[in-house]
TrEMBL record:
Pfam families with a match to the protein in the record: DapB_C, DapB_N
Enzyme class: oxidoreductase
Gene name tied to this protein: dapB
Start and end residues of each Dihydrodipicolinate reductase C-terminal domain: 115-249
Key word NAD present: yes
Single GO term (MF): oxidoreductase activity, acting on CH or CH2 groups, NAD or NADP as acceptor
Similarity comment: Belongs to the DapB family.
Keywords annotated in UniProt: Amino-acid biosynthesis, Cytoplasm, Diaminopimelate biosynthesis, Lysine biosynthesis, NAD, NADP, Oxidoreductase
GO CC annotation: cytosol
Gene3D superfamilies: Dihydrodipicolinate Reductase, domain 2 (3.30.360.10), NAD(P)-binding Rossmann-like Domain (3.40.50.720)
Positions of the Dihydrodipicolinate reductase N-terminal domain: 2-112
Name of this protein: 4-hydroxy-tetrahydrodipicolinate reductase
Reaction it catalyzes: (S)-2,3,4,5-tetrahydrodipicolinate + NADP(+) + H2O = (2S,4S)-4-hydroxy-2,3,4,5-tetrahydrodipicolinate + NADPH + H(+); (S)-2,3,4,5-tetrahydrodipicolinate + NAD(+) + H2O = (2S,4S)-4-hydroxy-2,3,4,5-tetrahydrodipicolinate + NADH + H(+)
Amino acid sequence: MINILLSGANGKMGQAVTRVAAASDHVKISCGFDINTTQNADFPVYNQLSQVTEPVDVIIDFSHPSMLDHILDYAAANQIPAVICTTGLSTDQLSRIEFESKKIPLFFSANMSLGVNLLIDLVCRAAKILENNFDIEIIEKHHNQKIDAPSGTALAIANALSDTVSYPAEYVYDRHSVRKKRGKHEIGIHAVRGGTIVGEHEVLFAGTDEVIEIKHSAASKEVFAVGAVRAALFLTQQSAPGLFSMKDLIEAQ
């Protein structure tokens, strides 16, 4: 049985991970970390990591960017692998994750859904074939409570496409401020916020007289929780430090 320390335990994603873990025969949440220490499940929740006394084999972090340093400090000091699921991280924070991965196994993905990561694989294959004759646009939709825009997943899709195409891609986030025709090397990125949309990501390839759309929609937060638990199990099987992603998990299947 793998013991999980769940960071952000009382948030919506933390609660989803709790439900997924409770249905698993392979993992158990031994304790939680959150500014809200209300105990909503059968494990204690602390607001200081120094208070943790329960056994911990791996950390799942679905908290807030401001908590990342605390999580990484604790993980590195105790040699505990960590799955970082929090989005909206800065460039410096991403660099810190890469630095700490030289000491311990770390798993980071902008989106923990297996389906989204399959979408990334598919759109990159399409881009190789279509890049000279099709414009690329990315549209992401989320609920009205999401703080960051565009989503980390939309940026991950854009970065994967940028690495795939032969030209230097230019990200364009807002077209209303400049009146000009669309550039040939642009990747448009558009954010929609409203209602209770869990998460939708669509990549549009627009050519002459034809359009190709590749889309992923999440109906609940459970899909991300399932991916996070699978990532935690994967990470505990790694014998050496390193930075792993959903691509590594998929290739290991």
